Amino acid sequence: MRTILPVVLGLCGLARAADDKAAAADPVGTWRLEYAIGDLKRTATLTVKRDGDKLAGTMSWADQKETELKDLKWKDGALTFSAVREVGGNRYPVEYAFSVDGDKLKGKGAVENGGRKTEFDIEGRRGQGDK
Predict the structure, then answer these.
(1) What is the pTM for the complete model shown?
(2) For the stretch 46-58, what's the b/e string if a residue is b when 16 or more beta carbons lie within 10 angstroms of its beta carbon?
C-alpha cells in the first residue's frame, strides 16, 4: 500500500499540471497586439470572450473601432479568425493565426491587396486582470 500511494499522488499531480497548462492557454481576455507592416509600427486590441461553449470577440485599432471576429476557432493552443480592416474607405479581410502561451500570444496576420498577399508577424500580451 505504501508503494501505491506515491504513484496515485504522482498521477494526480500530472493530471493537475495538464489542467493548469490548458487553463493557462485559454485565449479569453483582452490582448494588446503589436506588429509592423513595412516600416510602420502598429497596435491593435483583441478581445476574446466566452459565449456559452463558443468563443466570440472583437478587434480594434487606433483608427478603427471594434469589428467582430469571424470564424473564430480555438483548438490545441491555436487561435484563428478573420477580421475586416477598414483603411481609407477600403475594406480588407485579414486572416489571423496565433499560438497562446499563458499571457503571451504570437502569430501572423495575412491580407491580400491588389492580388498580392502580405503577411506580418504579431506579438501580444494579455491585459492585467483579464483571465
Answers:
(1) 0.77
(2) bbbeeeeeebebb
Chain centroid, CA 25 distance in Å: 10
Cell numbers describing residue 53: 461553449
Q: Are 47 and 56 in contact (CB under 8 A)?
A: no
How does pLDDT run across 94-122, given as a tens digit for each residue? 999 999 999 999 999 999 888 899 999 99
Helix (H) or strand (E) holding 89: none
Domain annotation for the chain: domains and CATH numbers: 26-126 (2.40.128.20)
Which of 97, 81, 76 is CA-nearest to residue 26?
A: 76
